[in-house]
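[SOLVED] Need 3D model of a two-part complex

Original post:
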Amino acid sequence: DEAPRVPGFRTWRSVYIFVFGAFLLLVVALALFSRVFA
Amino acid sequence: MNALDWIVLLGTMLGIAAYGTWRTRHTDHLDTYLKGNRNTSWITIGISVAATQASAITFLSIPGQGFESGIGFVQNYFGLPLALIIVCAVFLPIYRRLGVYTAYEYLGNRFDQKTRLLGAIFFLLQRGVQSGITIYAPAIILSTVMDWPVKVTIILIGVVVVIYTVTGGSAAVNLTQKWQMGVIFGGMVTAFIVLVTKLPADSLHIAGALGKLEAVDFSFDPDKRYTFWTGLFGGLFLSLSYFGTDQSQVQRYIGGAALREGRLGLMFNALLKIPMQLFILLLGALVFVFYQFQPDTPVFFNRVEWQRYVDGPDGAKFRALEDKHAALHRDRQEKLRAWTAVRTGENAAAETAARTALLGAQKAVDDVRREAKAALTAANPRVNVKDSDYVFIGFIMTQLPHGIIGLLIAVMFAAALGSKAGELNALGTTTTIDLWRHFRPLAEHDEARNIRNAKGWTAFWGAFAILFAVFVSFEENLIEATNIIASLFYGVVLGIFLVAFFLKHVRGTAVFWSALGAEGLIIALFFLRNAFPALKFSYLWYNLIGCAACVVFSLLLQAVLGDRSRRTAATDA
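Solution:
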């Protein structure tokens, strides 16, 4: 841990958690998308 | 292709290459030549990482994958975000702090020179073998569709990329990749918009009913090719090897103004890559829907190849297959109209019956396409029956307006140039830094001589790739074989790096012999596949096995060597 200097993120750990959270959210969205159109 | 298409294609392809060459023609610092400009920002690094990974085959094959088997292929990329987080947290800070030019230089720092050479030679072997393929594979498809001699396409791609990559090194690669990604993004979005305007409103429901939108499969069935779990774990090891230890990627992010820029560039990719692949797959699934409404669709999408057999001595058999396919296609259209008429109605039983009839009609069309491929194989056992690579390019050439055709062909060439440039740049750098310097240690501080050599080795690998692609007569199974050869090395190289980062007590001799042992195990598993059916698992798992074997062997061998050296020390005392 240079700080990320991204608004809303104070540490790199918070950036990594955000990115992995976004991935999990995308998986849930994809699963729902498949169910809606299946 | 008309005059407008040619202007768009040559204007973008040669214009970007000429601009990159001119802007970086005075690159005379080794640091800039090998790592790019010192003020490179995270967005340039992020685009460069994406452009190196996205080859022409990405834009030719992946829409075909979406057309053929739907968007489930996206699961292959599920390991990528976690892999990039690990690269950001562990790999990148160490590379930056040591100021290395190549990933293998770090191995020399952490272990010894023989382990560094082993890592560099593994990389040069796998990338060198693949370098001919990365030009040949898109060239054969583009040449077939546009009726060009394949050698002209190979030489055109090869010479253009060698000129600007040799001239400006990493600085030129970064600069041109930014513009090439602009062309790719603009072209793909344009194709998507044109396609959507040609589709009915309920296209997604039609794609879903025909099984093209099954994105995530959480089952543990080992017979299924793409599931959430194989994507997450198999994909994690593949992505970790590729982004963490493959110099063609490492070179993209170790430059930059600061550690922060490299990290943000990689996080940009962690967020962007899956949606980008999903977009390309969805494009393919929607092309599938588009063809449902066309009066006639090809029974085999490599139309040039198919026509050769229709005009041949067995032409009657192939024409009969065309007629059979046309009749089944018309039947499917009727079933589709019947299903869309009752889809939103109150009668659930009628909807179920109509959907079952539609799926039956779809299966009949799939069966006749399989029959057509079997007929081609019977006529010529060496024919390439994988026609899904021709689906999207065929759609471009027959369904898009002039000007946009030129733009989409420019997308394919931009992707071929961008990924090839990153690869050549890395091959030239690794040969210079890890091999040439190893045998010429006194030349390390002669900057001009280092740049001359880096340019020379980049040109050598460019010429090697062009000649390999022009003179080696590739067959489909040879292309697959070279891709398999690459996957045989990846896991072991990752194992060496994981030992370096996490097992501080393991020394160079232990990891060197363990890596060779693990590589021997992987090659043995590969050659025993045919004798033992139980060993016929997906190539994705070779990465995991190679990596795990290298780590376990290193721990065991270090324990033995450690004991021996302690006993020797005690005896000496």
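Edit: The mean pLDDT of chain B is 86.
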